[in-house]
Amino acid sequence: MKAILLLLLYSGLVSFTAIASTSPTCPANLAGDCNGGSDGWEGEFFPEIPKIKYEGPSSKNPLSFKWYNANEVILGKKMKDWMRFSIAFWHTFRGTGADPFGAPTKFWPWEDGSNSLAMAKRRMRANFEFLKKLGVDRWCFHDRDIAPDGKTLAESNANLDEVVALAKELQGSKIRPLWGTAQLFLHPRYMHGAATSSEVGVYAYAAAQVKKAMEVTHYLGGENFVFWGGREGYQTLLNTDMKRELDHLATFLQAAVNWKKKVGFNGTLLIEPKPQEPTKHQYDWDAATAAGFLQKYGLSGEFKLNIECNHATLSGHSCHHELETARINGLLGNIDANTGDPQIGWDTDQFLTDIGEATLIMLSVIRNGGLAPGGFNFDAKLRRESTDVEDIFIAHISGMDTLARGLHNVAKLIEDGSLAELVRKRYQSFDTEIGALIEAGKADFDLLEKKAMEWGEPTVASAKQELAEMIFQSAL
Ligand code: XUL
Ligand code: CO
């Protein structure tokens, strides 16, 4: 189901069919052979929207921040430096509201229904006006979100170069990509995977796409580069050589590391785990699987993880579990901030509005000492039924305020100290001579048997779960 959805969302095909009756268009298609129209745009893209300001928790103005106060210092750092927010170009500027059962619902005034180069440039102008009005300095993109595919790889690269040159100019000195990535899942050539495709030609094509996407990310001053293995997995093991595919994935990622070093790109490489969708089984299932894969293939020092909350719940974990798994392995690099719906089983990519969830997320981020050079990318989209331009702003403001409340709450928990004290006490039996020997790996079974005989039946204290939950709740 998600495969079809992604096709609709990313291709722009659906937007053409739905908008065609009302707008002068040239056909949107994967070959991108239409460059008609102009990228010029009279006036502002968001004339009704002011620059978004902090007005405090009592404000009733939906176009203001109630909790996110960029320069306010919390736990020794400005909020903007803890958060490092980013917007996702694909959802915000390529999402049409189409789903497998219905046509697009969003008809942004600047869209002409085409997938032309001129339209790509106009969209880029809208992106930077949006970022500036929202007060966010980072953005994330796939190569094919921002520029149309050409008839050949060389033509696609030339299209990308043209849009990237404009993006570089519009970024100014302050705005940078949080991360770039290569879109290796939409085009039919990637139906068996990219790095794990059974076709060597596809492996090579994907490598060429990553090479170029990494170069443009570097050129734009991007701080990270993401690998989400959308089709790196299988539909059935009956036709799949899993070992060979995983070996290929590792050689592909090693080649990406080598290329990064060759071109002098200092950004962090990030693997984004997800258990399935569009494949039945995606190889980077969750944080622990990805950590094991990196270790097995000697790639641990070269990659970190981009944890997406809705992917965490799809894999049967909480976002907090995935963040902590990444963190304790030294792999927490970035967060794709979104959430799923407890009644829906798939990747709904909603904006996070649950304050308890945001507090748990910020607990991990603060324990990690922040995310830099990573940040929070809003890999989230408006609901199909939200169709006003102002909804784009409201959704991001709400997501930013929710995480800001999480940060405030963690500051309260740290100041109060009782949760940390509860955890400290829980393990205090190891703060002893014998505990130190065990933790240093110096207590053999002989010694432990001797101690067990000497001590007799051990005392076992309460875990105080309800107390821990009470303390947590009182900070919300
Ligand atoms: C898909 C997803 C992607 C990655 C980038 O579920 O999250 O958009 O973040 O390819
Ligand atoms: Co994501």
Give a brief rundown of this model.
It catalyses: alpha-D-xylose = alpha-D-xylulofuranose. This protein is of the alpha/beta class. The protein has helices spanning 2-11, 13-19, 79-83, 89-94, 117-134, 143-146, 153-171, 200-219, 242-263, 287-296, 309-314, 319-328, 355-367, 389-416, 418-426, 433-439, 445-455, 465-474; strands at residues 53-54, 64-65, 73-74, 77-78, 85-88, 138-142, 176-181, 224-227, 233-234, 268-271, 281-282, 303-308, 332-336, 376-378.
Query: How many domain regions?
Result: 2
Task: Determine the fraction of residues in helical runs and give it as a percent range.
Answer: 40-55%
Biggest sheet, open or closed, and with what strands and sense?
Answer: 8 strands, parallel, barrel
Number of strands: 14
The value of Rg in angstroms is 24 Å
Provide a count of the helices: 18
Shape: globular
Bound molecules: D-xylulose, cobalt (II) ion
The averaged pLDDT comes out at 93
Keywords: Carbohydrate metabolism, Isomerase, Metal-binding, Signal, Xylose metabolism
GO biological process, one term: D-xylose metabolic process
Protein name: Xylose isomerase
Catalytic activity: alpha-D-xylose = alpha-D-xylulofuranose
Overall description:
- This protein has helices at residues 2-11, 13-19, 79-83, 89-94, 117-134, 143-146, 153-171, 200-219, 242-263, 287-296, 309-314, 319-328, 355-367, 389-416, 418-426, 433-439, 445-455, 465-474, and strands at residues 53-54, 64-65, 73-74, 77-78, 85-88, 138-142, 176-181, 224-227, 233-234, 268-271, 281-282, 303-308, 332-336, 376-378.
- It is built from 18 helices and 14 strands.
- It is globular, with a radius of gyration of 24 Å.
- It has 476 residues and is α/β, with parallel strands linked by helices.
- A hairpin with a 2-residue loop joins strand 3 and strand 4.
- It folds into 2 domains: 2-416, Divalent-metal-dependent TIM barrel enzymes (TIM Barrel); 418-474, no CATH class.
- Residues 1-36 have low confidence and may be disordered.
- Helices cover 45% and strands 10% of the residues.
- It starts with a helix and ends with a helix.
- 44% of the residues are buried.
- Strands 5-6-7-8-10-12-13-14 form an 8-stranded parallel beta barrel, surrounded by 4 helices.
- The structure holds D-xylulose and cobalt (II) ion.
- Residues 228, 272, 308, 336, 379 line the site of cobalt (II) ion.
- InterPro entries: Xyl_isomerase-like_sf (IPR036237), Xylose_isom_bac (IPR013452), Xylose_isomerase (IPR001998).
